[in-house]
Amino acid sequence: MHHITQTTTATTMLLLAVVLMVPWQITEGVENLLLNPSFEDTPAGTWNTKGFRAEQYADDKLDGRYSLRCSERKKKLVGPSQYTTGLRMGSGYELRAYVKLLNDNPDKLWQQLKAVVRFDFTVKVEGNTLRPISERPPRCVGLRDQKRKDCLAVLKTWRDKLKKQNAEKKKLNEQRKKEKQRKKQEKKKKKQKNKKKKQDKIKKQKQREKDKQTKKDKNKKDKEKKNDKKAKDKTKEQKDKERNKAKEQKKRDRQRNKEKKEKDRQKAKDRKEKAKTGKGSGARSSRNQTRIRTLSQLAPSLETQTAERTRRDVYHPIIRQRLLQRQRHRRQAQLPQTPVAGEDEHLMLGIETAQGAYIIAWRAFVRSEQGWVLLTGNINAPMLPFSGAELAIRGPDEGIDFLLDNVTLYEIPERSDWLTASHAMIDEHRKSDINLRVTVPAGVNPADVDVQLELKNHLFGFGSKVEDKLLYRKKTQHFRDMFFNLFNWATIGSFKWRFDKSRDLYSPDFSNAEEALDVLNEHGIKVRAHSIVWGVQKNIPDKVVATPPEELPRLLKFHTEYMVNLTRGKVEHWDVQNEFLHGHWYEETMKDPHVSENIFKMARPLDPKVKLYLNDFTAVNSGANTEDFHDMGVRFIKANTGIQGLGVQGHVKEFIKPTSTMIWRRLDRLAETGLEIFLTEFDIGWRDDVVRADWFEDAMRAYFAHPGLSGVILWGFWKDWQTYQDKYLVYGKDMKFAEQGQRFVCLTQKEWTTRKTFNLRDPIPPSVRGFRGDYEVIIRKRGIPVQRETFTLGKETTVVDIRVTDSNVPIAVQDKHDYVPQCISHRDQKSVGTVNSSLSQSAEFTCSDRMSPTSGSFNGAEVSVTCEAGEIMTSCSSFHAGHSSGTRRGERITVEDGVVTCTAIKGTGSPEGVRASARCCRASELKCDYRQAGPSSPMDGAMAESTCPPGHMPLGCSIFNQYSVLEGAFPNQDMTSCLAQSGPPLSEDPALKSGAVSYAACCSKPGLQCRQVASSQQPIRGVINVTCPLGDVMTGCNVMGEEGGLAGAHIDTDQSSGVSHCRAFVGNDLPDGEAKVSAVAICCNSSSS
C-alpha cells in the first residue's frame, strides 16, 4: 500500500490543488490503494499492460516526470489495469484519474472512457445459498522484491498442484469414458432386442388386422346379396308407379328448359338493339369502375383491421417485449450498425455475473481537443466475499491513443451516525411549523370540541410506474384502489416511441397511454411522461431507424410537437431524452452534436408549465455517471434548452447495498446544478426478502432526508406486472404485502405523516411541527364530525385560522384504507450465539432465578447477570429497583465464549437504578439460539420481531430501546418468535429517536411444549402477577402495556411452595384507571422430564 503523502511533493501539491476545484473532495493523507499512481516508476510490475504498448511519456504530463502513454491498441476495451487486495466488502470507494486522448475517430462525434472494478468472488450464488468457488491462483501483479518472489513460488506450487489435479481428472475422465462406452454398448444391445420384439409385435398385429378385415368383407358381401334379393321381390305395380312418376318429371323438365331458352333469346335480342342505339354503356362502365374502387378501398381496410387486431393481441407487456426483441434481431441482421455508446450497456447496467465487474467511472462525451479529462466516480463494493479486485481503465475505440496520469482509488468511510442524521435532516427539510388558531362561538363548550389535524397528501413525491391496462380494466379495481391509496405520483412508460400502435410515423397512436393519463388526472395523481426520445439504438423503433438521415430532423420535430401537445396541461414532467449518456444514435446518425438540445428547445414553448427532464442511470444508485450527468445538466442549462430537472433512475443491482453516505455524496453533486432532481426508476434486488427490505428502508430514509431530491418513483410495485421479479412491494392476485411493501407503507403513511387531535378544554400548542403537504382539519363536537377545513403546508410557517361554526349537522369523513395495520419489522435478523446443555439425559427440567445488584442511578447505567455452570439462560428481563416509572432502556442479551449475559440498562427520569433478572434452567438435550432483530420504526406501536429457527420456540423475550418508551416484549401466538413493541419518543428532538430491538431465547428439546400465559390487562398501580398451570415450568417473564411507562418485570419463586410468579410492575406516575398492563409468562413442560 502507498500513501498519497508518500508520493513526490509535486504530485501531492497538484492533487490538493485539484481537490480545491472539484466538489468531490478528498483530504490530505487519504490512503491510495494503487501503486505507482503517477507512473514515476516503470509500469512493469505494478500495472498490467497486456494487449497494447505502454510507455512512460515525458512530453505531456500533469506533474512529475511522466505520464503513461497507451498506444497500438487493437481492441476497444484494452487499457492498463492493476490488482489490489485493499478493498472491503460493502465499503464505498472513489476513483479519480486523468485521461487525455491523442487522436479521434473521424466517423464518431465522441469517444467514451470508463473504469471497471473486477472482483474475484470467493463464493457464487446458487438459488438462495452461497457456494464456495474453487481455489484461485495468487495474483503477483503489483508486488515487488521478496514478496514477488514468494508469490511466484506459491504460484509455481499452485500450478504444480493444478497440473496434478488435471492429470487425476484426466484419468478419471478416461475411466468415466470407458464406463460410458460400456453402458452405451449395453444400451445398444438392449435397444436392438427391444426393436426385434417390437417388430414381432407389429407383425402379429398386422396379421390380426388382416384376418379381421377378411371377416368384415365376407359379412359385407352377404349383406349385399340379401339386399339384392329384397329389391327383386318388389311388386310390378310399385315398379310401374315409379316408372310413370319418372316420365312426368322428365316432361316438366323439358317444358322449363324450353321456356328458359325463349327468355335467353329475347334478352340477346334486346342487347343487340341497345348496342345499336348506344344507350346504357356509360352507366355500366361507371358501375364497374365504382366496383373496382370499392374493392381497392376494401383491401387496405381489411389489412388495417388485421394489424389492429394483431397489435391489440400483443399489447401485453411480456408478449410485446418478446416480439420487439425478435424485431431487433431481424433489424440488426438487415441494417448496417452505427457504433454508439450503448454497445457496452450490459456492463453499465451493473454486474457481469461471471467476472464480477462493476463500472466505477464513465465519461460519455470525450474528444482530443478537450485535453486532460477527469475520469471520476464511485461505487459500493458488493456484499459478496471476494479475495481482491482489479481496476481497469478501459479506453476508447481501437486505434485511439491516450495518456493516463494521477490515478487514485480511495475509501469513503460510512457515517456511523447516518440514521440519527437522517432523522434530523427529515425534520429540517420535510417539515414546517403550523400555527393553528381555533375560535369557538359563544354557547359551545370547548371541552366538547375536538380538532383533528391530518396530512392527506405529501408534498414530496411518492409514486410508481404503472401499466396502462391496469388503470382501466374492470377486473383491476383492487389494483387501482391500492395505487391511489399508496401513491401521489405515477410514471406512464408507454409514451415511449416504441409503444406507438400506428404504422405511420406521421399518424401516431398512443391511445392506451392517453386513457391511462385521463384516469390518473381524474384521481389527482401527478404524472411523469416517459419519454419523447431514447438515444440507445436497440430501444428505437425499426421504422425510425430505417428513416433516411436527411428526413430525421423533420420527423423529430413532428414527433416532439405531437407528444407535448398530446399531454399539454396533463403531465407534470416530460422525460425529453432518456439515457443520453449511454446512447447517441440520433447525434451520430445526423452528425449533429446538438440534436437533443434542439429537442428541448422545440418542446419548451409548447407547454410552458411542464418540467423538462433528462433521465439516466448510474448517477445515484452508483456513482459511475454522477460527474458526467452533472456536467451534462450544466451544458444544457448554458445552451438555454429550458431544462428543469434531472431524473436519476436508481436501479440498484444485486449484491450492492446502498449507503446513505454515498447517496448523499452523489445527490450533493447533482444538486449543485440547481435543477430539480427526481428518483425516477427505483428498485432494489436481493433474493432474501428481509435483507432486501432492510436495504430498501435505509435507501428510502437517505433519499427522503436529502433536500435536493423532490420525489421517489418506484419502477413498478406488483410482482405480477414487473420486469424484475425480486423487486416488488406486493405479490399474488390478492396483492399481499411483502416485507418491503410493509416497510414502504409504514414509512410513508405512518412514520412520515402528521396526525394530531386536540381537545379545546386545553390550549393548543402555539406551534405544531408537521410534514409538508395537503392537510385536512376535522372539527368534532362530542365525537361527531361537523366541519371540514383544508390548507397546504409548504416550506414556510403556515398560520391556520379556524372558526368553529354553530352547526351540529354531521358530515361524511372518508379515511384511507390501512393496508398495514401493524408495523412489524424483521430487519437485521441474526444469531448472537448458541449454547447446548451438557447434562445427562436423566436430568429433570428445572429453573432458577438469578438477580443482579442494582445499577447506578445515572442515565445509561448498566448491570449484568449470568447463569451458573450447567445452567442455560432462557429469559432476560429488567425492572426498576423501587418500581418507579421513569424510563428503562430495557435489556440486552450477549454471548461470548459460550457464556450468556443478561444486561439491564437504565434510562432517564427515575432516581433509582435497575436490576437484571435471568431465568436459568437445567435440562438434558436443551439447545438455545439467542436471536436479535431490529430496530423497529421509531414510532409508537411499531414492533421488531426476532424469529426462531425451525424446531425452536421462544422460552423468553426481551426488549431494548435507546430513547423511546418501552411498551413490552412477548411471544407471538404460534410460539415461533418474540415481538418487542416501541412506544412514543421521549423527546421532540429528531436526533433522539430510536426503535425497539427484540431478543428471543429460542430453544429446542425433545418433547418440549410451551405456551404464553398472560394476566388480564388491569388498570391499577402496583404489581401484577401471573403463574403457570400446574405441571408447567416458567421459563420467561416480561411486561406489556400500551401506555408505556412500565417499571419492568421479573420472576419471583416462592421458596416454601416452589411456585414461580411473573411479576410486572406498573409505573407509579401513570394515571390511575388508564394504564392497561399485563404480565406475560412463558410456561413449558417436557414429556422427557
From TrEMBL:
Q: Where is the composition biased (Basic residues)?
A: 178-207
Q: Where is the composition biased (Basic and acidic residues)?
A: 163-177, 208-251, 259-276
InterPro entries in UniProt:
Galactose-bd-like_sf (IPR008979), GH (IPR017853), GH10 (IPR044846), GH10_dom (IPR001000), PCSK9_C1 (IPR041254)
Which N-terminal stretch is annotated as signal sequence?
1-29
Q: Name one GO biological process term.
A: polysaccharide catabolic process
Bias kind Polar residues: ranges: 283-305
GO molecular function, a single term: endo-1,4-beta-xylanase activity
An example Pfam family from this entry, by short name, is: PCSK9_C1
Q: Where is the GH10 domain?
A: 464-747
Q: Which top-level group of life is the source organism from?
A: Eukaryota
Region annotation Disordered: where it falls in the sequence = 163-309
Enumerate the UniProt keywords alphabetically: Carbohydrate metabolism, Hydrolase, Polysaccharide degradation, Signal
* Gene3D superfamilies reported in the protein's UniProt record: Galactose-binding domain-like, Glycosidases, Proprotein convertase subtilisin/kexin type 9
Name the protein family: Belongs to the glycosyl hydrolase 10 (cellulase F) family.
Q: What is this protein called?
A: GH10 domain-containing protein
State the organism named in the record. Littorina saxatilis
